[in-house]
Amino acid sequence: MSTVPAPRPIAKIAHLMPHLNPYYPRMFQQARSSVEDGFEVVVIAPHDRDEEREGVRVLGVPHYRSRLERVTRTNWLCLKRALAERPDIYYLHTPDQIPWGLLLRLIGRKVAYDVLEDYKGAAMVRTWLPDWARTLTVGLINAANFVARKAFVTVIAERYYARDFPEAIQVLNYAREEDYVEISAIARDPASLDRIRLIYAGSITDTRGGRHHARLLPHLPENALLRLIGQCPLGDVRAELEAIAARDPRLDLVIRVDWVPRDDIIAAYREPYTAGLAIFPDTVHYREKELTKLFEYMAAGLPVVASNFPVWRELIEDNEVGLCVDPEDPAAAVAAIRWLSDNPEVARRMGTRGRELVRERFNWASQARALNDLYRRMLDRTPIGAGATPA
Q1: The architecture CATH gives domain 12-174+364-380
Q2: Rounded CA gap, 213 and 235, in Å?
Q3: Which of 56, 149, 169, 235 has the most CB within a 10 Å radius?
Q4: Do 47 and 17 form a contact (C-beta atoms < 8 A)?
Q5: CATH architecture of 177-360
Q6: Mean pLDDT, 10 residues at a time, over the chain (391 residues)?
Q7: What is d(CA 198, CA 252) in angstroms, rounded to the nearest whole number?
Q8: Is 134:149 a contact under the CB 8 Å cutoff?
């Protein structure tokens, strides 16, 4: 009995990720979607073994704790394994990979560079860096961005990154609709709530609202619940939150130094809430981001209460999925939360509308098409972006 041979892959893509877990959501989502579209994909990253998951081959390299070792040894080991795979396109993810990418270009390889963070904005909020070091870091990042624009095909994860990468292809940080199946199925009935219940799920740091969410407590009713669940590194913010939780039972901390398992996050979402919170202080790093957390709240059917940054206000209030508040005015924020609690039918409509938008617009399908179309154009050497030439 003859068997039909498997179709030949369109091309091989190698993701080189010296600093990231091979299953980092954005990158693995890209890899998985390309496999589904007919590409062969290998992900090369710190991992204790080689394995295959959902059609994506993961090639492990040693994990080094020192950043210097990751920049040098891990980068080299990733490049070495990638070269042995002879991919058609090398896909890079961090600025320290740019010199290695230049080496690949010098030997005639095709290289794409994914700008997944606002590295300049991040540098400006690193309080442990002295002013002169922040200025120097921003200058170095500007130089790296210039080189990347000239040498590689570039991809951006946020719309506003186009200011530094005007010819880049947008592949935005939307999740696959399938990734929201469990939380999208949770029944919501705001009218059944007998008290205000709030959730923040995500990394808990100062710039991601750790202290700002805790400042809501003096203005909340005595029977309210404020749940913060996520990764919270050791440090001042964690110590302050743990001290508050020890004396105020309204603050429920579900935190770990490393990542909280996804099953625990989903279990938390299954409980009833008045709103999902994202009350972040105003920083250049988050001011213009389309925060992934906002889409998760929408998929979970929760009204969103978030900082009143213009980009967030356009996403939340213009789409009628929640309310935006001054992050420096906790009393006003709680007034908005109380209004949602007092108007459960409006809250229900906001939650329903959020789910509709995630299903119809804010999902990964359109972004996967943009990414895989980019690969095809790189292979065909057809124009990319605003007049850019494929590498």
Answers
A1: 3-Layer(aba) Sandwich (3.40)
A2: 17
A3: 56
A4: no
A5: 3-Layer(aba) Sandwich (3.40)
A6: 68 95 90 96 96 96 87 94 97 94 96 91 70 83 92 94 94 87 95 97 95 98 97 93 97 90 93 98 89 94 98 97 98 98 98 95 91 95 53 42
A7: 10
A8: no
